[in-house]
Amino acid sequence: MRKKGEEEPHDKAVAEIAKVEFPYPNKSYPNRKTYANHPERNMPVKKNEELVYPDIVVVDTEKEKPEMIGEVETASTVSEDHAVQWKEFSSLHTFFLYIPKNYASEVRRILNSMRILLAYSAVRAYEFDTQGKIVISIA
Fold first, then answer.
1. Which among 6, 53, 62, 89 could disulfide-bond with 37, CB atoms 3.0 to 4.6 Å apart, if both were Cys?
2. Is 108 helix (H, G, I), strand (E, B) or coil?
3. Which CATH class is domain 7-138?
4. What is the pLDDT of residues 7-66, one digit of tens each?
5. What is the spatial distance between Cα 25 and Cα 11, in angstroms, rounded to a whole number?
């Protein structure tokens, strides 16, 4: 569970990351569409027979299937408990993990200790600048 007070910044980060990192549809990819699952659930992904709701889902609208998923963590959710979900999501589709800036070493420690390989995946750090604009970097 996310700590009290982190839900609003989390939802803002999800919306901004979806808009900046996954601006679909666009001229290059007119058949992709991006969905954010916060604050409301909009697009599920099938995991075995279960439906899960990653924070961000990019769908190929012609094939009617997800292509990419993204999960946005906050300080309280950079944990081994949540890393189980990272592993599951990375096995479903191309996976992007967004973590608060300054948590990269902790994420690497968790990934190594739990032997999670993020093949075809990426870890990105995010923060909001003084104007409230999101800044994303490779973690």
1. 53
2. helix
3. alpha beta
4. 999 999 999 999 999 999 999 999 999 999 999 999 999 998 999 999 999 999 999 999
5. 21
Q: Buried b / exposed e across 85-102, counting CB within 10 Å, b at 16+?
A: bbebbbeebbbbbbbbee
Give residue 31's identity as a one-letter amino acid code: N
User: Which of 31, 117, 50, 38 has its CA nearest to residue 77?
Assistant: 38
Cα torsion angle, 61, 93, 42, 131, sign = negative
Residue 73 pLDDT more than 70?
yes
| H or E stretch covering 133 | none
Residue 106, Cβ neighbours under 10 Å: how many? Answer: 14
Residue 102 CA: distances (Å) to CA of 13, 20, 37, 58, 75: 16, 21, 25, 27, 10
Q: Give the residue-averaged pLDDT of 74-91.
A: 93
Chain segment 98-129, per-residue pLDDT in tens = 999 999 999 999 999 988 877 667 899 999 99
List beta partners, residue 127: 135
Q: With contact defined as beta carbons under 8 Å apart, do 55 and 38 qualify?
A: yes
Question: In the block, which residue shows the tokens 């979806």?
Answer: 18
